[in-house]
Amino acid sequence: MTVTSTSVTMRQRRQSYKDEYTKQTLETPNFPKSVSDKQIFAFCLAFRMLNSLLVQSYFNPDEHWQGPEVAHRIAFGYGHLTWEWKQGIRSYFHPLIFLPLYKILALLHLDTPWFMMRAPRLLQSVFSAVGDLYLYKLSAVLFGDSVAKWALFSQLSNWFMFYCFSRTLSNSLETVLTLLVLSAQQVQSHGCMLVSLSFFNARDKLKFVFLEVAPIGTLVLGLTCLLDRFMYGTWVLVPLNFLKFNFLSSGGDYYGTHKWHWYFTQGFTVMVFSHIPFCIAGIIYSKQWKFTGLLAWVLGFYSILGHKEFRFVLPVLPIALIFSGYSLAMIEDPSVSSPPHKEKEFSKKHNKYPPKMTAAILFLLATNIPMALYMSLVHQRGPEDVMNHLAKEAFQGKVKSILFLTPCHATPYYSMLHRNLPMQFLDCTPSSEEKGVLDESDRFMTDPVSFMSKFANNSSFPSHIVLFESEEQKLRSSLISFDYREVKRFFNAHFKVDRDLQASVVVYVRIIYSLI
Fold first, then answer.
1. With contact defined as beta carbons under 8 Å apart, do 179 and 318 qualify?
2. Alpha-carbon dihedral 191, 195, 201, 204, rounded to 10 degrees
3. Residue 333 class from Cβ within 10 Å (0-12 exposed, 13-18 middle, 19+ buried)?
4. Three-state DSSP class for residue 32
5. pLDDT 10s digits, 350-406
6. DSSP bridge pairs for 466
7. How far apart are CA 243 and CA 58, in angstroms?
8. Partners of 403 in beta bridges
């Protein structure tokens, strides 16, 4: 009797969601749809694949070390696992996405330096295109196809989405999943990842939590735990370990902190960039307060944490860009903002945009395109260029071992080199014992000459040494005395990135190996 009653209740709830969605759809401006979903996806896929090929710079270590590097280790039997994997605060779900890709490349003998460098981002570009499509769908359900096309324009033209969305960060995949869930939630008010919107829509909130949220959440958590149990070889509750490290013990603060208002005054504003005035206007005129509230809630929640990064709030950037699209659609046709009962029939397409529309489009393109290209092709490209060079050299058998005298995780690793050679980098594992104790990376950055002298006494010399120009200037004499000479120098940045101006990345090779 209980099971039957529950089934009836769930059917009734689904029907009420459909009725609510139908009502919402009827109240949405009925703009003509000129293109199909397949055409939109094909365009977005072509755009994102080109986008991924144009991204040739280094943004965040996790792009390589927490995804492709882990997958490479599983696929080929060698690779480095950072300290997070030893403490069980990372799930294998995201890295395993790249495992079939590596297996296919090896099977087809395409695991060359070019493919090992580009293939993971090309795979991510497929997921990103799906995210773009569902941003369009979500916008169409909320406001109509006219707003949807400008929301998609805002997403594709935004410099940070271009710079970050095709990278192999777990945050990029989270952004795609967020758009999928929000789109599904608008259609049938159902989802497990961002349940807050559904929660506010539900009439009986307790039944909603226990009959819908809890079962789905339990299923997802159970499957993830089983996957991690298989990969770790023991039971590991990753969400709990992640919560304990990042929230309860503030472990993330080890990597730097920002003021509480950073996302509002710097981080998120830089990400939205020149779309900000359009975003604010869209929020005011669209009156979509639930999505505005979701945006504010996420930014506010992450503002509580001491350690802050741009990528943490990437999943809600598309929401801001939807509002930007709404504002652009209003400029094109003011009737977009008219109440449903007063709305006039959508105006026919004109051959030319209104002058204000043309100015807005040119403004957004003129401000975002240079920024996107500079950050993707110029700024901090040194780490990727040096690993691409070393991968080609290793492919030809010219590399025996490598020492990275850089801040830890400053370059990609085995996933790009793709040769099982001895490599060493400076450790920066957070110390759980005594706060204020400098790790190996910090000790080197504080006194490179002293560190190098101790290293020479206790370790064998590698065939290649990689370091930034700021440290290379201090160590040049020591390196020459140890029979090293400069063989390559790669541009990295025009302005200060970390502690000093890391203008270039330099490769030194020991003379006996340079003769090979």
1. yes
2. 100
3. buried
4. coil
5. 456 788 999 999 999 999 999 999 999 999 999 999 999 999 999 999 999 999 999
6. 404, 507
7. 28
8. 424, 465
**Secondary structure of residue 485 in the 3-state scheme:** strand
Residue 141 — φ and ψ, nearest 5°? -70, -40
**What pLDDT is recorded for position 184?**
80
- Other Cβ atoms less than 10 A from the Cβ of 318: the count is 27
User: Which residues contact residue 433 at a Cβ distance below 8 angstroms, ignoring those fewer than 6 apart?
Assistant: none
Query: CA 196, 290, 304, 408 torsion: positive or negative?
Result: positive
Q: Is 404 helix (H, G, I), strand (E, B) or coil?
A: strand
**Could you give the CA distance from residue 232 to residue 242 in angstroms, rounded to a whole number?**
15
pLDDT tens, residue by residue, 118-168? 999 999 999 999 999 999 999 999 999 999 999 999 999 999 999 999 999
Would you call 427 helix, strand, or coil by DSSP?
Answer: coil
* CA dist 201 → 16, 142, 188, 205, 233 (Å): 11, 15, 11, 9, 41
Half-sphere exposure of 455 (CA within 13 A, CB side): 23
Contact 82, 67 (CB under 8 A): no
Copy the structure tokens of residue 144. 């109509």
Q: The tokens of 213 are what? A: 């949220």
Check pLDDT > 70 for residue 14: no
DSSP state of 260: T
Distance CA 120, CA 111 (A): 12
The percent of residues in the chain predicted with pLDDT above 70, rounded, is: 81
Q: Is 506 helix (H, G, I), strand (E, B) or coil?
A: strand
The two structure tokens encoding residue 478: 């020591």
Contacts 24+ apart (CB under 8 A), 231-235: 231/92, 231/96, 232/88, 232/92
| DSSP of 153-219 | HHHHH-HHHHHHTTS--HHHHHHHHHHHHHHHHHHHS--SSSHHHHHHH-SSHHHHIIIIIHHHHHH
- Measured CA to CA, the distance from residue 162 to residue 52 in angstroms comes to 8
Distance CA 68, CA 99 (A): 8
306: helix, coil or strand?
A: coil
Question: What are the structure tokens assigned to 418, written together?
Answer: 């793709």
